[in-house]
């Protein structure tokens, strides 16, 4: 597996003179990996690896440190969201035998924590995925587990991942 060099441009836009929104815009793909009615969640390890490969902002550890998240990544500049979803499964989870079904697009705007007084905009491409092999923990994803949707909605998520889950509808019974 080849690590993505830091010089790769991601579709994560921040404020430049004359550029809107001034609070930034992030384009991300999410893989909601399902197995036996449960979804996969994990916790970040090796943050420097995440910063290099998936553009994790190391300046705000309170957003991700010791918190749960869905497998996700920012889009690289010019990358199609479908390819980013495949990259998540192949690079973050290191699986080869998977199926991606459907795509849902969600958009969230909220006050920017990076640029006070400005609005940050997230555009999220959400994919359902099933994996036909065992998913093992990785140094960059040391804690991975499948949980029910209702349990997931109670977890302490970093970033906007809880909003992604909540937007998928009511928990399955």
- Sheet of most strands: 8 strands, mixed
Structural class: alpha+beta
Tally of structural domains: 1
Number of helices: 4
Find the count of extended strands (DSSP E, 2+ residues). Answer: 8
Please describe the structure with a list of short key phrases separated by commas or semicolons.
single chain; 173 residues; alpha+beta; Nucleoside Triphosphate Pyrophosphohydrolase; eight-stranded mixed beta sheet; 8 strands; 18% helix; 32% strand
Describe the model.
It is globular and about 45 Å long. It is built from 4 helices and 8 strands. The chain is 18% helix and 32% strand. The longest helix is centred in the middle third of the chain and has 12 residues, at 81-92. With 173 residues, the protein is α+β, with helices and mostly antiparallel strands. The mean pLDDT is 84. The chain has one domain (33-167): Nucleoside Triphosphate Pyrophosphohydrolase (Alpha-Beta Complex).
